[in-house]
């Protein structure tokens, strides 16, 4: 008499639960990556409806108190050009994202634009979306 067990072990592996976890992780990382702010300074930027697709390598910010920041480091105006040359020395596609408070006179932004033009840097003026 042959004894057979009623419980058969299936050799197939069900991937549906694994794909659910992967999709949940993907959604989680997509949502959290949009919440990360690269600019930690609080500035009132002018509004614009255009968008640019520049690779951000250096963020230069001018606050309403005329304080200059390269990324998050405060810099005197005289040292902006040497710092930018140091940070963008080996990067061919690098660009500068200029964040200027909208209460600042345009001549302060033009000074930074002149530095970028002299050294052939790509410069993008950051704005808030409408």
Strand order of the largest sheet: 4-3-2-5-6
Predict the CATH topology of the domain at 47-129. Answer: Nucleotidyltransferase, domain 5
Per DSSP, the total helix count is 3
Task: Write down how many β-strands occur, each being a DSSP E stretch of 2 or more residues.
Answer: 7
What gap, in angstroms, lies between the N and C termini? 82 Å
Index terms:
single chain; 130 residues; alpha/beta; Nucleotidyltransferase, domain 5; five-stranded mixed β-sheet
Q: What's the short story on this structure?
A:
With 130 residues, the protein is an alpha/beta fold.
Description:
- The chain is α/β, with parallel strands linked by helices and 130 residues long.
- It has three helices and seven strands; from the N terminus they run αββββαβαββ.
- It has a domain at 47-129: Nucleotidyltransferase, domain 5.
- 32% of the residues lie in helices and 21% in strands.
- The strands form two sheets. It has a five-stranded mixed beta sheet, covered by helices on one side.
- α3 (106-118) links the parallel β5 (95-100) and β6.
- The N and C termini lie far apart (82 Å).
- The relative contact order is 0.18.
Element layout with pairings:
Elements: H1 16-35, E1 47-48, E2 56-62, E3 68-70, E4 73-75, H2 80-87, E5 95-100, H3 106-118, E6 122-125, E7 128-129
Parallel strand pairs: 1-7, 2-5, 5-6
Antiparallel strand pairs: 2-3, 3-4
